[in-house]
Amino acid sequence: AMMTAPAALALNGCATRRPLPEPEIVGDVPVQVPAILAPYRVVKATNAPKRVIDVHAHFFNASDVPVAGYLAGPVAHSKSGAMRELLKALAPIADWLATRAPTAAQEFRELSRMVGDRALTLSDQRSIQRRLDATRSDYLDGLSRELYEQLKALPNFVRLFNDAQGRLRQEHSALRGFAGDLYRDLDEQSLTRAMRRESQLQTLSTRELRTNDQLAHAEGALAFLGHMLSYRWMNLRAYQEAFTTEDGAFGVDRVFGALVDFDHWLSPSLRSAHADQIKVHHFLSKLSGGYLRALAAYNPWSDAVDGGKTLERVRQAIVERGFVGVKIYPPNGFRPYGNSMIAGTVVGAPSGVVLDETLLKMWRQCAQLGVPVMAHSGHSMGSDDASEEKAGPLGWSLLLKRMQSETLPRINVGHFGGDDPRYPWTQEFAALMNSHEGANFYGDLGYWEDLRCGRAGASCPAADRLTAAIKTYPIVEQRVMFGTDWFMLAMERRWDRYPQDLAITTRAMVNPELFFGANADRCFSQAKPPL
Fold first, then answer.
1. Residue 213: pLDDT band by 50, 70, 90 thresholds?
2. Of the candidates 378, 439, 416, the residue with the CA atom closest to the CA atom of residue 509
3. Cα separation of 464 and 413, whole Å?
4. Cβ atoms of 322 and 530 closer than 8 Å
5. What is the average per-residue pLDDT within 203-218?
6. Is the Cβ–Cβ distance between 355 and 304 less than 8 Å?
7. Of the residues 166, 366, 431, 529, which has the fewest C-beta atoms closer than 10 A?
8. Cα(419)–Cα(452) distance, rounded to whole angstroms?
9. Mind spelling out the 3-state secondary structure of 423-455?
10. Residues 6+ apart with CB under 8 A from 492
11. Residue 93 near residue 67 (C-beta atoms within 8 A)
């Protein structure tokens, strides 16, 4: 069911909000830092190509976004049924989530402390990561107990969670002597269990864990909360463990972490200033030896009201801190271009004409800097259906027409139209790629959950749609890229298997060397080394 009008209105620019935070970080990222967050090894799966780049991931936390509006709006709206209700039931503790998550300034101080710890930095890389993982484990154990105290005061959440767990116990009780107590009712250790890659789970295939996709994966909602409440470096370690360093990993060599800017579109305000978020991601990139590269967030509403300070902050992130691109979020409620043609807009937002003029400055700046722009392009993650429509192909075709006589920066339409079968956006984006004006168009397959269907004889409409787009427009094979949309993906069962599952499903469609690496290298070819 769609969200009610009052709920949607409560998330727009008219809602009561805190003032935007001022930067708190004192000092700057050190010039020379030890690469204590670099992977100690890269494990390659048998079906992994030589080079794997994840162009679409996130490592922010709840202090970096307007968390109340984010959870009740885009995150909940992107789900259905019991999972949507679970996420909406968290609204009463949204302020606690925002204040409990480490701010960017707190993380900067923690990273600086780690850099100054000679017992840590002088260890070998494997020992470093063991120490960091032990720190993360202790943090999550304490967080699990704290979160339980908050959640048990939400009767609706407890009821929905326990009901979902009970249904999963019943669903999986007959599988290979499956341990039925794995899906326990909510308690002090629920978050710890949800965040841990249980050895029992490793014995079950993706198919078995998705026996009934209508059943809510309640522990996925908890895992999402765990990442939202963690230090960003801990989220990076969780990603590395699953996709790069540990047995069973696929072999990701590099990941691009995109920041997001929902200011004004969602309420109340975030806790960590964007300038501080940029510094922390710069620090993380250097500490990871370039394993993580970051994309700066751009918001045309903010840029319109602050006189261009938002765009200047983005420019500095690219020129002075080695950021490799820019992230925009059209399902907030704006088209990439053509907003002046829309009859109405979000209450309080700049006019469509102003939004278009502001966006054009951003497009031209990115073309001049030689960096790509990634944009959410699926019919999802908006506060309502009307907002999500603005992420579709129409605004992009209007942009191509407007800039046909200018240099357009490379564009990555994140999610490549999305895997929702109700919208033919993938085919339409493929047509834009094939056009003369669309020579700089790329797309990634982040969070195509329905594409995890490569088993023999299985029906897979998502794969059929992607195959049809590639057959109709062969240029897609040169432009489609691997992405995960982690940690949004972390709400799903066996999310650690996502790259392996996509490798199986797409092997007959695209050259894996292109899909997993070469296309990304071409899209981001002008990215500078980490600064």
1. very low
2. 416
3. 20
4. yes
5. 54
6. yes
7. 529
8. 11
9. CCHHHHHHHHHHCCCCCCEEEECCCCHHHCCCC
10. 217, 220, 449, 498
11. no
Output the pTM of the full model.
Answer: 0.93
Q: Which two tokens stand for residue 29?
A: 């990222």
Q: What CA–CA distances, in Å, run from 25 to 37, 63, 193?
A: 21, 14, 34
Above 90 in pLDDT, residue 470?
yes
Q: Which residue has the tokens 């949507």?
A: 84
Burial of 503 (0-12, 13-18, 19+ CB in 10 A): buried
Helix H segments across 103-217? 104-115, 118-121, 125-151, 155-172, 190-195, 199-202, 206-209
**How far apart (Å, rounded) are the C-alpha atoms in residues 139 and 113?**
16
- Average pLDDT score, the chain: 89
From the CB of residue 341, how many other CB atoms can be counted at a distance below 10 Å? 13
The backbone torsions φ and ψ at residue 235, rounded to the nearest 5 degrees and listed phi first, read -65, -40
Q: Rounded to 10 degrees, what is the CA torsion of 34, 39, 41, 44?
A: -150
Distance CA 102, CA 107 (A): 6
Four-point Cα dihedral 112, 117, 120, 121, nearest 10? 70
Long-range CB contacts for residues 13-16, cutoff 8 Å, separation at least 24: 13/264, 13/265, 13/267, 13/301, 13/346, 13/347, 13/348, 13/349, 14/347, 14/348, 15/69, 15/267, 15/268, 16/267, 16/268
Burial class (CB in 10 A: 0-12, 13-18, 19+), 193: middle
The DSSP H or E segment spanning 504 is helix 498-506
Is pLDDT above 90 for 47? yes
Name the nearest CA neighbour of 249 among 55, 452, 445, 52.
Answer: 52
